[in-house]
Write a structure and sequence with these properties.
Helix content: 25-40%
Number of domains: 1
Number of helices: 2
Number of strands: 3
Distance between the termini: 36 Å
Radius of gyration: 11 Å
Low-confidence stretches: none
Largest sheet: 3 strands, antiparallel
C-alpha cells in the first residue's frame, strides 16, 4: 500500500513537467501547483488523488502549458 506522499509523487510523475504535487499531512489533502502560472490561480487542492487528477486535467484544458 502506497503512502499519501508516494501517491502524490506518482501524480507528479504522470503530469510532469510543470506540476509540483504534494500531500499535506496536517490538512489531509493533495495539492498541486502549476509552475507555468503566476500566483494562486495555479494552485489546486483535493481530498482524493482521483479528484486531484481530474482537477489537473480540467486546469490544463483551461490554462494550457506553454510550448
Amino acid at each position: 500500500m502506497l503512502s499519501p506522499a508516494e501517491i502524490a509523487r506518482q501524480i507528479q510523475y504522470v503530469y510532469r513537467p510543470g506540476w509540483l504535487v504534494w500531500y499535506g499531512r496536517k490538512c489531509g489533502q493533495y495539492w498541486a501547483l502549476a509552475l507555468w502560472t503566476r500566483g494562486a490561480i495555479g494552485m489546486i487542492g483535493a481530498a482524493t488523488p482521483d479528484e486531484l487528477e481530474a482537477l489537473i486535467v480540467t486546469f490544463e484544458t483551461l490554462h494550457p502549458k506553454p510550448i
